[in-house]
């Protein structure tokens, strides 16, 4: 961690990261016990992602997944004929994801990295997909996140996100951005209203914002109503 700020962008961002971000070891420990009761440990894709293909909003192309975890959505995307780069900070989550991909006999390029350290080729991707990464990102990194998505997407490319609903049982901390810094924590994951998502991603064209549909497990798709889904496209 840097002790002094000489650059009001990079140095300040890194200092705030060190105060707020869960370390890599936290996520490795989280994923190492594969038998614990975590709703999204199922090996089924998000119901909204499946719906985008059924509605022909998505078609085979280049996809970047941010925070892929054990790979369930990345694997589904590969099965649909997409070329997938799937990024996660945790080595343990990617070990699991790689095993799952081999079982399904699909090819996914899994990348162990902080998303903000990615060397993104501008305009490479038809889709950027995020299921559960964004709500762990502190407010000071939102503009970095938005710029990453904009750089990654082709003109008219799609950006889809799944995140916590405020105050639901899975998480969704009901705290202000200022409270994040008072508490030095995102309290397990920030919750978002429809209005807040619309405001944060106002530079994109909104296609759909809704709650995820509740899907009783086991099933071929995953869905819990404590999550909110949103689909946008890049504006040029």
Say what oligomer this is.
single chain
Q: Tell me, rounded to a whole number, the average pLDDT.
A: 93
Q: What is the CATH class?
A: Alpha Beta
| CATH level 4 superfamily | Vaccinia Virus protein VP39
CATH architecture, please?
Answer: 3-Layer(aba) Sandwich
Shape annotation = globular
Number of H/I helices: 8
The total of beta strands comes to 7
Distance between the termini: 38 Å
Give the percentage of residues in beta strands: 15-25%
Organism: Neobacillus ginsengisoli
InterPro entries: Methyltransf_25, SAM-dependent_MTases_sf
Keywords: Methyltransferase, S-adenosyl-L-methionine, Transferase
Domain Methyltransferase: 63-157
Tags for this model:
alpha/beta; single chain; 7 strands; Rossmann fold; about 240 residues
Structure, briefly:
The protein is of the alpha/beta class and 236 residues long.
Q: What does it look like?
A:
With about 240 residues, this protein is an alpha/beta fold. The chain has a single domain, classed as Vaccinia Virus protein VP39 (Rossmann fold, 3-Layer(aba) Sandwich). Helix content is about 30%, strand content about 20%. It has 8 helices and 7 strands; from the N terminus they run αααβαβαββαβααββ. Strands 3-2-1-4-5-7-6 form a 7-stranded mixed β-sheet, sandwiched between helices. Helix 2 packs across helix 5. The longest helix has 14 residues, at about 90-105. The radius of gyration is 17 Å and the shape is globular. The N and C termini lie far apart (about 40 Å). The model has no long low-confidence stretch (mean pLDDT about 95). Keywords: Methyltransferase, S-adenosyl-L-methionine, Transferase. Pfam families: Methyltransf_25. InterPro entries: Methyltransf_25 (IPR041698), SAM-dependent_MTases_sf (IPR029063). This is Cyclopropane fatty-acyl-phospholipid synthase-like methyltransferase.
